[in-house]
Write a structure and sequence with these properties.
By secondary structure, the chain is α/β, with parallel strands linked by helices. The chain has 5 domains: 224 residues, Spore Coat Polysaccharide Biosynthesis Protein SpsA, Chain A, CATH 3.90.550; 101 residues, no CATH class; 231 residues, Alpha-Beta Complex (Spore Coat Polysaccharide Biosynthesis Protein SpsA, Chain A), CATH 3.90.550; 72 residues; 107 residues. Helices cover 50% and strands 15% of the residues. The strands form 2 sheets. Strands 1, 2, 3, 4, 5, 6, 7, 8 and 9 form a 9-stranded mixed β-sheet that branches. Helix 13 links the parallel strand 12 and strand 13.
Length: 754
């Protein structure tokens, strides 16, 4: 029996085929067969195979129509006679000891699979570099052999799905019924992962024995027409197979990790957004979604950055789908038309899933003291009972016009409402807010009296819960202005004064607009974005020649937990700010007088967009990929790349704070040193004083010593004189005579004493 069958699919590999076969024929292990399956090559690969077949009888050649590498490998397996199977690629080459080492290890351990490593060979540079991912030695368990049942770590974490770094026992493959898929690419994923999951004995040769050629455009993979979703079909097939065998739960974590890695790799190697979009669409289909890959958290995976990348592109596709949907035309149905033809005021209310609040909103409008109004309610595809409530009110009040459309967003609803409006003035409000009952009368009276283009007024917030009030404190007085703007002025003047007071508000619900002015300036709401108020308010205020502000708080803004203003920031809001910036920049070049004010405010908006993008969840940052090419460039320059600036600013701020801390600490140290210096100065001055005093004492004592020495010398001189006198006396005759005469008396005296 032949020991090893080497199976090589060949497709247009004429440049490298000879090197591949020569490296096999040089093997120190000779008991093998080499099965080459030509997959419909159109170059000279077939002639090279025939020539080698004639040269060495161990080489067998099969020919097939182009059906891709998976089918070629399957056909090779059908005629293979070896004890073990080795699948190699026609553009690679190998160490001379490859077969000897892996077969020996396989027989020694009785292994179903033998794993080994590879190196990359760059065909352009001729450089060989490590490719440690083909065999992650750190992940290899100490137990030898091992399997999914015996090791604690992930069985799929040790190697890649590539079959050419593995030796398979043929009986094991046949008994398990494992085969290669007939996919254009990724056809080895099902085969390799299934084999790794079900093998009872797996062992390793921890050496790099294959030189994997990179940069070869003519390789088996590089020469094929790219099919972007083959990898999805492959991994889904593995998922189904593991579940069918009842072992999925055992290998779930490992499978999802390798699945994610495959998704990230394939999406990274595709730069065209059209192809990425197609992949993302397929990933959102039930066949893929049932794997639960995207339901996990980033922390679940070995490479969280891969999850963030894939999730980011899926979010981008979702955002684009929603965005484009909002830009498409929509069918509009007028359910009911109001009877009044020329009302004084048209109140336009977009309605979307506000069944809890719409009654209170409509009551505040229906009950207005100004009766000559029309109420245009645009149902934006509500999924709750909002439309039924509108119809109920429409039956009771003929001033109500009801329009129904597919969900296209609040801007589309307002635009359709404005198209149907016939009032002298327009007022836009939301379906969950409330208006004071005298508001429209007072606004209309003032606007018509002074012939105003726009009347601005104030509002107040009310909160659904105390917790929300505490959480959103910044909205308590947000709609109230303290400045005095109660005179007719131009829109540019009003904008300037409000900006000086930091009281400019872009809220649409604080504006009462002349319909003639609205139509003359061709005002409308930007569709497909969030934050359309910003753009509209600029468009409305800047061209206006007569505007006025009433300090009355007519408007009551409901702050609720699931509203746009209280929800967490999403890419839609950031994109809305970006679009607003571009729109305003384009629109107001013709207003040089207000250019400075506009620039200041829009720079603030842009700065906020940058900050929000910087703080956005990583998986949502990639939504910019779905933008139109031109806008993508602008977004990258104005917002995305500024993230790096934000990071640098943060780093600088951290460094600055550290410097401040160091400065403070050093200041304290300096203060301490100064205090110690001062204390030491006092000590030194004290010591100097003591020294001075001691010096004076020493000098006084020295003077005394000098005086005593003088006295001593004087006494010594006197003593010397006396000694000389005594000596002369003792030497005299009379002294010696007296001594002789008194000697008897001295003797008697000494005897008496004795």
């Amino acid at each position: 029996m032949i020991k090893v069958s080497v199976i090589i699919p060949v497709y247009n590999a004429e440049k490298y085929l000879e090197e591949c076969l020569d490296s096999l024929l040089r093997q120190t292990f000779t008991d093998m067969e080499i099965i080459c399956v030509d997959d419909g090559s159109t170059d000279s690969s077939a002639e090279i195979l025939k020539r080698f077949q004639e040269k060495d009888r161990r080489i067998r050649v099969l020919f097939q129509e182009n059906q891709y590498a998976g089918i070629a490998r399957n056909n090779g397996m059908k005629i293979a006679q070896g004890e073990y199977l080795l699948f190699l690629d026609a553009d690679d080459f190998f160490e001379d000891t490859l077969l000897e080492k892996i077969y020996s290890q396989g027989k020694k351990m009785g292994a179903d699979i033998v794993l080994f490593g590879a190196k990359q060979y760059n065909r352009k540079t001729g450089c060989v570099s490590p490719a440690s991912w083909y065999l992650k030695t750190a992940a290899v368990p100490e137990e030898n052999p091992f399997s999914r049942k015996t090791q604690d770590t992930d069985i799929f974490a040790i190697t890649t799905p590539a079959p050419w770094t593995k030796l398979f026992r043929k009986e094991f493959i046949d008994s398990e019924g494992i085969f290669f898929q007939g996919l254009q690419n990724s056809n080895d994923v099902y085969f390799t992962l299934t084999a790794l999951a079900v093998a009872e004995k797996i062992t390793c040769v921890e050496e790099d024995l294959v030189f994997y050629r990179v940069g070869a455009e003519e390789s088996l993979q590089g020469s094929k027409k790219f099919s972007p979703v083959c990898f999805l079909e492959a991994y889904c097939a593995v998922y189904e197979e593991l579940n069918r065998r009842g072992i999925y739960e055992e290998v779930e974590e490992g499978f999802l990790n390798v699945f994610l890695s495959g998704c990230a790799h394939n999406l990274r190697t595709v730069t065209e957004w059209d192809i990425r979009r197609y992949i993302c669409q397929r990933m959102n289909e039930p066949e893929f979604m049932k794997t639960g890959l995207m339901e996990r958290k980033a922390e679940y995976f070995r490479k969280p950055e891969d999850f963030i990348f894939v999730k980011g592109l899926l979010n981008a596709a979702d955002w684009e789908k929603h965005h484009r949907k909002n830009l498409l035309p929509t069918e509009v149905e007028t359910v009911q038309k109001a009877e009044s033809e020329n009302p004084k005021v048209s109140v336009i209310i977009p309605v979307y899933n506000v069944e809890k609040y719409i009654r209170e909103c409509l009551d505040s409008i229906v009950g207005q003291t100004l009766k000559d109004i029309e109420i245009i309610c645009v149902n934006d595809g509500s999924a709750d009972s909002s439309l039924e409530i509108l119809k109920e009110y429409g039956e009771r009040d003929k001033r109500i016009t009801i329009i129904s459309q597919e969900n296209r967003g609040i801007s589309s609803a307002r635009n359709h409402g404005a198209e149907k409006a016939s009032g002298e003035y327009f007022y836009f409000m939301d379906g969950d807010d409330i208006l004071e009952k005298e508001a429209l009368f007072k606004l209309y009276s003032l606007a018509s009296e002074k012939a105003l283009d726009v009347v601005y007024f104030d509002g107040e917030s009310f909160f659904e819960t105390e917790e929300l009030r505490e959480e959103k404190k910044n909205y308590i007085a947000y709609y109230e202005r303290t400045g005095d703007y109660s005179r007719v002025m131009t829109g540019a003047e009003m904008l300037h004064e409000m900006l000086l007071m930091n009281e400019y508000r872009s809220s649409l619900c604080l504006q009462f607009i002349n319909a003639s002015y609205y139509k003359k300036e061709k005002l409308s709401f930007a569709e497909g974005i969030i934050g359309e108020d910003n753009i509209f308010t600029f468009q409305c205020i800047m061209p206006a020649s007569r505007v006025y502000h009433m300090k009355d708080r007519f408007f009551h803004r409901r702050v609720r937990g699931n509203s746009v203003i209280t929800s967490s920031w999403k890419f839609e809001q950031i994109y809305g700010m970006f679009e607003g910036y571009l729109s305003v920049e384009e629109r107001f070049r013709e207003f040089p007088s207000g250019r400075e004010d506009i620039s200041v405010l829009m720079e603030q908006r842009l700065r906020m967009a940058r900050k929000l993008y910087h703080n956005l969840e990583p998986e949502y940052k990639l939504c910019y990929e779905a933008m139109e090419p031109e806008k993508k460039i602008y977004f990258t320059m104005l917002v995305k790349d500024y993230e790096q600036v934000c990071k640098k600013e943060q780093d600088l701020m951290v460094k600055y704070k550290q410097v401040c801390r160091d400065k403070t600490e050093r200041g304290e140290e300096i203060h301490t040193l100064r205090r110690e210096k001062q204390e030491r100065g006092i000590e030194i001055r004290t010591l100097r004083r003591e020294k001075q005093e001691r010096g004076l004492e020493i000098r006084r004592q020295a003077q005394e010593i000098k005086e005593l020495e003088k006295q001593k010398k004087s006494l010594e001189k006197e003593n010397a004189g006396l000694e000389r006198t005594v000596a002369s006396i003792r030497a005299s005759f009379s002294y010696r005579l007296g001594r002789a005469l008194t000697k008897p008396f001295r003797w008697i005296k000494s005897r008496l004493k004795a």
